[in-house]
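Notebook B, p. 112. Complex prediction, attempt 2.
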Amino acid sequence: MSDVFGDVATSAIYQAMQGLWAEQQSAANNIANINTPNFKAQDVDFESSLAQAIANGDPSQMQVTTTPSTAPADQIGNNVDLASEMIDSQKAGMQFQTMVDAMNAKFQLLSTAINGPSSAG
Amino acid sequence: MGLFDPISTAITGVDASETWLNAVSDNIANMNDVTSTSQGAYQERYVEMQAVPGQAGGTGSGTGSDGAIGSGVAVTGIALGSPQGVEEHDPTNPLADKNGMVRAANIDLGQQMTNMMLAQRGYEANLATITQAESAYQAALGLQV
Amino acid sequence: MSIIPVSASSAALFPTTETSQVGLAGPTTPTSPTAAFGAEGTTAAGGTGDSFANVLGNAIDGVQSTQANADNLATQAATGSLTNVSDYMVAAEEANIQTQLTAAVRNNALQAFQQIMGMQL
């Protein structure tokens, strides 16, 4: 990204959107495999990596990690917990929405600085 | 990474659940089939499913013991159960052999109803995922650059 | 990302002495053009309340810190460590309004300057 969007906050927002997207994909995959025998649900984590990358000053160093869930399996070897996957999916969706709003707010500030105040402000 | 990954993943789940529902309703419809003892009974349909692994270098493949996030489920085949069935004594049946025995299908209705509920649950859960992913897309499209 | 600094000129635009007969009219008033943005006078109680000039001046000087605050809260939201999303939304809106204010003042100051430069001697 160019220097105008190179500040830590904008980069952090962008990386968070990547991570939240991975969480949505993981939840979708776990739900799709809800009846698959011997399937182990996948857990996605990006927040701790992002916090570390921000502390080091470069949010683009964030890594999305995927680990198999250690939840107990049912009689066909499947350990997907539907309720928690649905909740995770909803949560990731709302956080994604928040990040979109945050990104818009950043663009808005830049636009105001360039073009002056909007008439609908 | 595809553009609409969560949605295509959820669609694989919908398809697999639908296939399972079809198999279960087939089993229930045929549970009272009888044949003569010289033939096989109606064989129970089992749907074989397998998780689709993620692409290397795809979403979430940075680190972690599991690698990339998977892309849903695939139906690898429909297996047929045993043709043994259960022999029943029914001398009035035109198909009965000299001992009055016929071969009936060995379908457990309770098991089939359970499977039907599981398949329906999977179907609805995947539809909910599609709705959820759609609202995330709408949010992303609302980015005003 | 830093906004175009106008804080250095805010002191010039907002004289701390109050001129009571000018409203917020354009530069056609007989007094000095900088008084176009001058104070409205003391508060109704006739006491020592903040003049409008001071309020505007402080608002412009505060733009950098509201933006930094919004950035900080956005980063916290990105790493998932923000407990109140409303905190961030309020801070973002605050930054937005103050940026718009600053941009408006900049535009009007420029306009006034150009009109002055265009005056026949």
